[in-house]
Amino acid sequence: MKKIVLTTITSLVLFVSSTTFARTDPAILNQAAKNVVTVSKAKTLADETGVTLTGAIVKHIADDHYELKDKTGSIVIDVDDDLANGWQLKVGDKVRIVGEVDTHRIKPTEIEVLQIERVK
């Protein structure tokens, strides 16, 4: 019985790890490195396009959603807590994000953040 429980837990951990790894697909990261764009340009790109954006956090919307603004406009970004590497993301922070365009039928386009760093 203990072996079954241990095997089940191990399988679950491996599944979650592989799902998390899938979010950081190297092809998306490579595409984002070549696709340094403004917010207004990001809003016009196709779903799942890799992008790199730089701007300032102007609003904490809820949970892991923030508003990022550059000189061309603003967009909602989705930043998982574990991406900030121990620092608390707050209004006024200037950041560079690597992420993936996330289009929706009804609500506006967002960016699913894969990597984030503070910039000066």
UniProtKB/TrEMBL annotation:
Residues 1-22 form the signal peptide. The keyword Transferase does not apply. It holds the Pfam family BOF. Keywords: DNA-binding, Signal. One of its GO terms (molecular function) is DNA binding. Transmembrane segments: none annotated. NCBIfam families: stress_OB_fold. This is DNA-binding protein. It comes from Acinetobacter nosocomialis. The lineage of its organism: Bacteria, Pseudomonadati, Pseudomonadota, Gammaproteobacteria, Moraxellales.
